[in-house]
Design goal:
Structural class of chain A: alpha+beta
Oligomer: heterodimer
Helix content of chain A: 25-40%
Largest sheet of chain B: none
Largest sheet of chain A: 5 strands, antiparallel
Structural class of chain B: mainly alpha
Number of strands of chain B: 0
Radius of gyration of chain A: 25 Å
Distance between the termini of chain B: 10 Å
Mean pLDDT of chain A: 91
Distance between the termini of chain A: 35 Å
Strand content of chain B: under 5%
Largest interface: A-B, 63 and 59 residues
Order of helices and strands of chain B: HHHHHHHHHHHHHH
Low-confidence stretches of chain B: none
Number of helices of chain B: 14
Shape of chain B: globular
Strand content of chain A: 15-25%
Mean pLDDT of chain B: 86
Number of helices of chain A: 18
């Protein structure tokens, strides 16, 4: 970023504004610096938090949920066969006119939507390689294969045609990478010979505009008075970048910030006791699991998988490793996602029955296996080595000897995706809140191929038929039914030992009104107020 | 004197090559690459992976990459961060003044306390003061910085409310970076209270970062002084009837300073290492944390560029220290 970085209004004006009595300033102690201000190439939640204040998307996730609600498009039609989406854009959506080098002359229109998609899609677009061509999420959500055409019907109507029906498509468009950027701005900067500026001095249509960014120190925003949804209730938004969790907590205690993410589990007790702070909590949109390689003996026999599911003491693992920051999981999708089947009963911890089942399957004396432990820490798996050790001890009780194995993270994932393991830990954090993003992505036949993310290599037709069909149906109630059936099959076939969903904790000072936890773990401040 | 300086400078060149080559090769020996690291759980399909590696020039043999890199460095181009896409030199320029400001304050703190403590401890050898200084400095030297920092925050910021918890200045102030040194910029900005806010934010981090150098300086000064105080010329000076202050302050201290200056020079390296932790605890936007993050993310250009730039600074400081010997002690510049 440039030395001073984005300084769009004069220092004096800002200092005055900040000092004006009555201006509401919310300070968020964020955990790190954003990668940059082009969300389409961002890969971290930290970057998305910084960007989602500035930009809008065609559609949005409702505040505090995973349902898709209108964004820049006020409504849309989906064709009968589920392949043609027609979006009707809001009129009079104003771009931020607060940057030094560019003043918008027109409102948002269809050209901006098309430009924002083509920038990530078509190599011929002059901006394809600007800043970076690594459009991770666009590719991860399979857009290059999915998109057939994006056309302008008129200034306020855009038609997107897909190659095949894809029910989660709307959710995909509500993700951060699909932020809409100004074509007029891009064109102007290209002409001026400074295209990178578009990604450093962002011009968006979001509820806040960027005032200043100083790497590793601070990000300052101001409420955009002409925001299409109405001006935010707070006037100034400041991200005080504070990488250490204990220090964030110290700042929150002292009132140096209002909201903080990712508290230390060890601080939770003190946080609960503080009269000025409330602790919000919710199971996160994630799952940690041990996958059995179902293509290899002995795990090609579902009785063996079921036996192991009963042999490992899940509660002990969650208590010992998550320290209150996780809830035991029974389904492959977290309870915050629609279609979660709460009526399913988890495998009980029952070593005796496990032994019996193993004997039935032809392994009365157990067997030898490997058990992979991830070398990294994740919210859904704070200590893979420890989990492996606990599981190893449990397995020994039914005669199964497990050898713990680990590799460097990139290598680990690659080898697991190639199916080199017998038992391997992994996890997933949801992208778009759609069950498809878990059930099809992690357990479908498509991804059971080599290099695919289905590391159980589990391709089970009755299950796959359900999740593939659920992709083609647009009606959510019908889809939920299909996913519930799929979860039953998953339970019966047991390709994973599901461990836990991490719980996200958010200490928030009591003067903050209406801060909603996002299942995605995002931190957005539109709609939040201060006492 | 000129020859002395030139000899010292010529030694910098091989060190420079060694440092850049090591940084370059070592990070590439670590498994994983930046593209894969960014991909995380979801992974990346091999074809896109290969294409992106090619785009960043990471598909070439390491020595070829090094050759290209050195060529660019000599033209003043350190490349762009793979993670943020910002030029390395710009990121460095934004963050480095913060580290320097902190390190300078830490050194000043260490010198102001360490030198007098060492001198007095030596003069009053085996007194309670001497034992006290030695015990405290040993404790300071062995202090885990992270724990020490948190302890000070809890005590002075949270319990007593005397200092702010972290950051460089109160968020109320909007300071336009001019020099990057906030103590200077806050004065230039003419905003009331800004300077004191910046100063109060510096106190704890400077103490934390200065603790180890303080301990080392105090101990070094003491032992150097003890040695010098036993010399004949000191006895002569005393016999001449010079005041104790003159004997100790002028004759002894000047000679004792040579090893102390060496140690201060060496502490520059220690300061950068300590800065990594101190910056993390106090949310101090400096280069230490930046470099550690670049290792975790395999951001090769940042790591290479950062090490090169910091290496240059450390070498420059050591060069200055070497030259300073010559200034302090004429025997050194004449014999070499």
């Amino acid at each position: 970023m440039t030395r001073t970085l984005l300084t769009t209004i004069s220092a004096v004006a800002f200092a005055l504004a900040a000092a004006t009595a009555g201006a509401k300033t919310l300070v968020y102690c964020s955990e790190g610096s954003p990668e940059n201000f082009y969300p389409a190439i961002n890969t971290t939640g930290t970057s998305f938090d910084a960007n989602s204040q500035v930009y809008s998307r065609i559609v949005d996730f409702e505040r505090g949920g995973t349902q898709v609600v209108p964004g820049l498009a006020e409504r849309w039609d989906i064709s009968e066969d589920g392949t043609v989406y027609t979006f009707y854009l809001r009129k009079g959506v104003k771009w931020h006119d607060t940057q030094k080098h560019f003043k918008p002359t027109r409102d948002l229109n269809a050209d901006d939507i098309i430009f924002s998609i083509e920038r990530q899609w078509k190599e011929s677009n002059p901006y394809y390689k600007v800043t970076s061509s690594n459009h991770s999420y666009f590719n991860d959500m399979n857009m290059p294969k999915l998109l057939k055409s994006v056309e302008k019907v008129d200034d306020y109507t855009v038609r997107i045609t897909l190659n095949q029906p894809e029910a989660p498509f709307l959710s995909d468009l509500a993700m951060e990478y699909a932020a809409i950027i100004s074509k007029e701005y891009a064109d102007a900067m290209l002409k001026a010979g400074t295209p990178e500026r578009v990604d450093q001095e962002p011009v968006g249509t979001g509820p806040f505009y960027l005032v200043q960014y100083q790497k590793d120190a601070v990000i300052r925003y101001k409420a955009w008075p002409k925001f299409w949804g109405g001006k935010a209730k707070i006037d100034d938004l400041v991200f005080a970048i504070t990488p250490d969790a204990s220090v964030r907590w110290a700042k929150l205690q002292k009132g140096e910030c209002h909201v903080m993410p990712y508290p230390n589990p060890a601080d939770l007790d003190a946080i609960r006791k503080d009269p000025n702070v409330q602790l919000l909590e919710q199971p996160g949109l994630n799952v940690g699991y041990i996958a059995y390689n179902t293509t290899k003996k002995p795990f090609d026999d579902k009785r063996v998988r079921q036996a192991l599911n009963m042999a490992i003491n899940k509660k002990a693992i969650v208590d010992a490793v998550f320290l209150g920051s996780g809830v035991p999981a029974k389904n492959p999708i977290p309870p915050t996602i629609w279609s979660y089947d709460d009526s399913i009963e988890d495998y009980p911890y029952d070593p005796e029955r496990a032994k019996k089942l193993l004997a039935e399957a032809g392994y009365p004396n157990g067997f030898e296996t490997d058990l992979w432990a991830m070398p990294v820490q994740r919210p859904y798996n704070p200590n893979a080595r420890r989990i492996a050790e606990l599981a190893q001890a449990d397995l020994a009780k039914i005669g199964v000897t497990a050898k713990i194995v680990s590799y460097e993270w990139g290598e680990y994932r690659k080898r697991a995706q190639n199916g080199e393991h017998l038992m391997a830990q992994l996890g997933w954090t949801g992208d778009n809140g759609d069950p498809d993003n878990f059930l099809h992505t992690l357990l479908g036949c498509d991804s059971a191929k080599s290099n695919g993310s289905n590391i159980a290599k589990w391709c089970f037709k009755p299950f796959d038929d359900l999740v593939v069909e659920a992709k083609r149906v647009s009606d959510q109630a019908k889809r939920a039914e299909l996913y519930k059936k799929a979860q039953r099959i998953f339970h019966e076939e047991a390709p994973w030992f599901v461990i836990a969903h991490s719980v996200q904790y958010k200490p928030v000072r009591k003067e903050v009104i209406d801060f909603k936890l996002s299942p995605f773990g995002r931190h957005t401040f539109y709609g939040v107020d201060l006492k | 004197m000129l020859r002395f300086v030139l000899t010292r400078v010529s030694l910098v060149v091989p060190t420079f090559i060694g440092v850049t080559l090591l940084a370059f090769v070592l990070i590439r020996l670590v498994p994983g690459d930046p593209i894969e690291t960014m991909a995380g759980e979801r992974g990346i399909d091999p074809e896109r992976h290969a294409r992106l590696l090619r785009e960043y020039g990471l598909d070439q043999p390491v020595l070829v990459q090094y050759g290209i890199y050195i060529g660019r460095v000599l033209r003043g181009d350190l490349g762009k961060s793979i993670v943020t896409s910002a030029p390395v030199i710009e990121e460095f320029a934004t963050l480095f003044p913060a580290t320097i400001e902190l390190a300078l304050c830490a050194v000043i703190f260490a010198l102001l306390l360490g030198l007098p403590a060492g001198v007095v401890a030596a003069v009053r050898r085996n007194s309670i003061f001497d034992h006290g200084v030695m015990t405290v400095s040993l404790a300071g030297y062995s202090m885990p910085i992270f724990w020490w920092g948190l302890l000070l925050i809890l005590l002075f910021s949270v319990k007593l409310g005397l200092t702010p918890v972290s950051g460089r200045i109160d968020l109320l102030y909007y300071i336009e970076p001019v020099t990057g040194f906030l103590l200077v910029d806050s004065l230039l900005s003419d905003q009331e209270g800004a300077f004191f806010s910046a100063l109060s934010h510096l106190v704890l981090p400077a103490i934390v970062l200065g603790t180890v150098p303080l301990a080392v300086i105090a101990r070094m000064t003491r032992s150097a002084m003890l040695e010098v105080l036993g010399e004949d010329y000191i006895r002569t000076a005393r016999a001449k009837g010079l005041s104790p202050l003159r004997v100790v302050g002028l004759h002894a201290l000047r000679n004792a300073l040579i090893p102390v200056v060496t140690v201060i020079g060496l502490q520059v390296g220690v300061l950068f290492t300590g800065a990594i932790l101190t910056e993390t605890i106090f949310s101090w936007p400096g280069v230490g944390k930046w470099l550690v993050e670049s290792i975790n993310r395999r951001d090769y250009p940042v790591l290479q560029g950062g090490i090169l730039l910091i290496g240059t600074v450390v070498m420059a400081v050591n060069l200055v220290v070497d030259v300073l010997y010559g200034v302090i002690n004429p025997r050194i510049r004449h014999t070499r």
